[in-house]
């Protein structure tokens, strides 16, 4: 069974309404957010290594790293072929900023909306009209989520 299949079978079998599922997903989302913070700090530097090396670097299991790689796959310039990855497979996290913006907007992930604005500084310096549209959509989504939260209280 591939690492991706193992990740999906385990992760998607966990209900986030149960204590076990909630704990698993909260842990995963915090780790995912930490990786995004790091790679967004310096978009020119492409993070890479083996799956195992990246998992160790970010203090996470191979399974969680595969989950991250699965999630970012559609935003990469050169896909890692996540369905074929093994622990010793070389991967690179060179992402397309426009695709990443759009995927962050599409995925409805609150934990990604709270990334520090400084993370986007380098991206904004090279912002094209299409990047600007994506960034504005992401910021609008953030504000909408924040307003909904405030209205509930």
Computed structural class: mainly alpha
Q: Main sheet?
A: 2 strands, antiparallel
Please state the average pLDDT score: 81
List unreliable stretches of 5+ residues. Answer: 118-122
- In what range is the share of β-strand residues? under 5%
Summed up:
With 153 residues, the protein is mostly helical. Helix content is 61%, strand content 4%. It has helices at residues 3-11, 19-41, 51-57, 62-72, 97-107, 110-113, 121-125, 129-152; strands at 48-50, 90-92.
Characterise this structure:
The chain has 153 residues and is mainly alpha-helical. Helices cover 61% and strands 4% of the residues. The chain has helices at residues 3-11, 19-41, 51-57, 62-72, 97-107, 110-113, 121-125, 129-152; strands at residues 48-50, 90-92. The chain has a two-stranded antiparallel ribbon with strand order 1-2. α1 (3-11) crosses α4 and α3 (51-57) packs across α4. It is globular and about 50 Å long. It starts with a helix and ends with a helix.
Record the SSE blueprint:
Blueprint (H helix, E strand, L loop, with lengths): L2 H9 L7 H23 L6 E3 H7 L4 H11 L17 E3 L4 H11 L2 H4 L7 H5 L3 H24 L1
Antiparallel strand pairs: 1-2
Core attributes:
153 residues; 8 helices; mainly alpha
């Amino acid at each position: 069974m591939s690492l991706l299949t193992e990740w999906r079978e385990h992760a998607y079998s966990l209900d986030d309404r149960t204590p076990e599922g909630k704990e698993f997903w909260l842990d995963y989302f915090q780790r995912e957010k930490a990786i995004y913070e790091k790679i967004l700090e310096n978009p020119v530097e492409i993070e890479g290594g083996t799956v195992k090396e990246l998992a160790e670097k970010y203090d996470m299991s191979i399974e969680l790293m595969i989950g991250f790689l699965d999630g970012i796959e559609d935003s990469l310039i050169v896909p890692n072929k996540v369905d074929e990855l093994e622990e010793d497979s070389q991967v690179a996290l060179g992402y397309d900023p426009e695709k990443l913006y759009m995927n962050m907007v599409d995925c409805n992930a609150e934990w990604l909306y709270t990334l520090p604005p400084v993370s986007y500084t380098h991206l904004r310096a090279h912002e094209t009209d299409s990047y600007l549209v994506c960034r504005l959509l992401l910021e609008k989504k953030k504000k909408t989520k924040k307003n909904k939260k405030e209205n509930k209280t």
